[in-house]
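With this grant's support, the team has encoded backbone shapes as discrete tokens. A representative record is reproduced below.
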Amino acid sequence: MIAAQAAITTIGAAGAHAMETADTFQVHGFMSQALIVTDHNDFFGSSSDDGGSLEYTELGLNASFRPFSHVLVAGQVLSRKAGNYGDAWQPELDYGVVDYQLIADEERAFGIQLGRFKNPFGFYNQTRDAPSTRPSILLPQSIYFDRSRSLGLASDGLSIYNEERFSNGTLYIQGGVGMPQVNSDAEISLSPDNPSLDSKLSSIGQVLYAHDGGRINVALSMARVRADYRSRQERQAKGEFIFQPMILSFQYNAENWSLTTEYEYQRKELKDFAVSSYNGRVNGESVYVQYLYRLSSRWQWLLRYDYAVSDRNDRDGERFEASGKGQDYSRFAKDVTTGVHWRVTPNWNIQAEIHHVNGTAWLPRQDNDDDNTEQHWNMLLLQTSFSF
């Protein structure tokens, strides 16, 4: 499945033609299990121990129906285990929306979604939890970070979308306002201070153009995520945390291969603190280039380079380490990934991939003590998944 198709799944479902309500109820689901082995550092469990980690499991169940021809009700419940991330196996509402379509014809689809909607963020965020939609076991961690995934995953509020169909392409526009799902993973990853974060009204939007049936896809995604920040170490240290990412996305699809690249510029800011040492701003950036070759209808091969830096003004982390805040290599990550994907049956997939990583910028703090990490490390992942 190409990335552009995955990115617009939510909008595309809302744009289906009206049909008899009795025939619209659908239930789908998926399950996956992975084995992760690292030579240094831990990822999703004690992966560096003998035998690796089996602590990466995903279970999902979704349903949708149309009570009226212009109304869609859809939702998904997700249960996952990812090392020490969050509440293991705790069922969560991944998304749940009531979609009211005001316009639906051959040229346009326009509607409103109320509820918990998946944020339109890059090519993959809206469907990132379904293994069959991902080009690899792990998405590029520089942009689709798993160690603080709740920060950009979904929002509770209102989303508006518009789909304009032209003779040689389709323009998708989606924007929303709501309360982001800022959970403990974001608190742990944001700072060793392990602050308390309470989400505030935030906004996100995306413009995506698919040309020639998805042969060329380009997108711009922007967001402003806000939360109240309170230190657990200094009671007087409280203020506001703001996260502002911007992603430029491009994909070209040929008959047997696809080239995808995304660039993210992000700003993290702490402001309005009485304790002035907390106030500050850091600008980071990320980029990946991904080549996917379809060897046959069942086999595909992937090669990717993924780069992330936490502070554009301190790319090698020297000033960060000199200030006594941590290791210099914790401020960047350079990841070379290659892998294969075997579609055993239309519903059953087996994947394998190898990562060679320099740096720990996206390494989960939930699984690691920053003082006992290694700069250069390797990771092998094997995963099987089934969807229905």
In short: The radius of gyration is 21 Å.
